[in-house]
Design a protein that fits this description.
Blueprint (H helix, E strand, L loop, with lengths): L13 H6 L21 E3 L1 H7 L4 E6 L9 H14 L4 E5 L3 H13 L2 E7 L5 H9 L3 E5 L3 H14 L3 E2 L5 H7 L1 H10 L5 E5 L4 H15 L8 E7 L4 H4 L21 H10 L3 E5 L1 H15 L5 H16 L8 E6 L7 H5 L9 H13 L2
Parallel strand pairs: 2-10, 3-4, 3-6, 4-5, 7-8, 7-10, 8-9
Antiparallel strand pairs: 1-2
Helix pairs in contact: 3-4, 3-7, 4-5, 7-9, 8-9, 9-11, 12-13
Length: about 375
């Protein structure tokens, strides 16, 4: 456990050590960190040619956080705050990434963790993390929304801390990604596109950009482009989705708890929200890997698919604009998707040599 002071701006101590004086959390029991944050903002010119021609396109690659997703930013804050308040155990409902992150930070803090998951709906890479970090994994028959309703009820009558994005410390931690974007670019982008599931992240980014502008770190705030999967698009539809379905499991949520906050962020930022098909998400998933060498989970690729669709519909005029797409999780979170139908049958050594020769001679 890191006990460095919260006001330190060291880039090597995680997001609380770096931005703790801008976060409304308690940390007197010490900072629980895995040195999260400081993820790269990668220029993506080849991808831009395909999805937003004429733009300066960047990828905020949150898959390089310690447990492979953006959730670590919020979890260091939530667990640090919980520890300061005397918590001995934490719980979350999850589609996978929150479970892995909560389990890791609970292990780091030396407290217990339980995660409640919809049975059969969580990618193996995420489930493996929660198990490896020692969480009590509880699968239920039902959706993420059912799982969250259950854990909220338990937390109202038992001494266990909820670390889903309803926890305000989560938002405080996740807003630090906006600070990093501003620091790298020297200002806010014109547009920031990101997937929307439970809507905690879009809420967090908007808070971060507003605070950065208020402190003079940037001259403007960006327009936000929220992206949902067509089979799981309650905010786009304006009503909850009882049985959400999408290949982008991280955003398979039918009734986001930060729904109103997301709508406020979209309204105040002069942003837009749209839905994209699973086919578009998977095309973007393959495209970003092939053009920029960046491997993200399917839900992350929704931001790219959404940007392409927004440009096609005329919502976003890309020429001369600075645009950031947030990639929320690493591709190894859902390895089955990458492997599906992609590995050919073994070949003889002679056939393999011929194939390699053709590749080398290709122009």
């Amino acid at each position: 456990m890191d006990s460095s002071p919260a006001h330190s701006r060291s880039p090597y101590g995680g997001v609380i050590a770096r931005y703790g004086d801008r976060m409304d959390i308690r940390s007197e029991s010490g900072i629980v960190t895995l040195l999260e944050g400081d993820t790269p903002l990668l220029p993506a010119p080849r991808l831009a040619d395909h999805v937003a021609p004429g733009s300066r396109l960047f990828l905020k690659y949150e898959g390089l956080n310690p447990t492979g997703s953006f959730k670590d930013r919020g979890m260091t804050a939530a667990v640090t705050d919980a520890l300061a308040r005397g918590a001995k155990s934490i719980v979350c409902a999850s589609t996978g990434n929150t479970a892995a992150s909560a389990a890791a930070y609970a292990a780091r803090a030396g407290i217990r963790c339980a995660v409640v998951l919809p049975e059969g709906k969580v990618a193996h890479g995420k489930l493996a993390g929660a198990i490896a970090y020692g969480a009590d994994v509880i699968p239920i028959r039902g959706s993420f929304d059912d799982a969250l309703a259950g854990v909220r009820e338990v937390c109202e009558r038992a001494p266990i801390t909820l670390v889903n994005s309803l926890n305000p410390a989560r938002i405080e931690g996740q807003k630090t990604a906006a600070f990093e974007v501003v620091e790298t670019l020297g200002d806010s982008p014109d547009w920031l596109a990101l997937p929307v599931g439970n809507a905690g992240n879009i809420t967090s980014y908007w808070r971060g950009f507003r605070e950065a502008a208020a402190s003079g770190d940037c001259a403007r705030t960006p327009a936000l482009l929220g992206v949902q999967a067509a089979g799981s698009a309650p905010i786009v539809l304006g009503q909850p989705v009882e049985r959400p379905e999408t290949c982008a499991t991280a955003i398979r949520i039918g009734n986001p708890v930060r729904w109103k906050d997301a709508e406020a962020a979209l309204r105040e930022s002069r942003g837009r929200i749209l839905a994209v098909t699973d086919e578009a998400i998977m095309a973007a998933y393959r495209l970003v890997a092939a053009t920029e060498g960046v491997f993200c989970e399917p839900a992350s690729a929704a931001s790219i698919a959404g940007l392409a669709e927004a440009v096609r519909q005329g919502m976003v005029q890309p020429e001369g604009r600075t645009i950031v797409c947030v990639l929320t999780g690493h591709g190894l979170k859902d390895p089955d998707v990458a492997m599906r139908g992609s590995v050919s049958e073994p070949e003889s050594l002679e056939a393999a040599a011929e194939r390699l020769t053709r590749l080398a001679e290709a122009r």
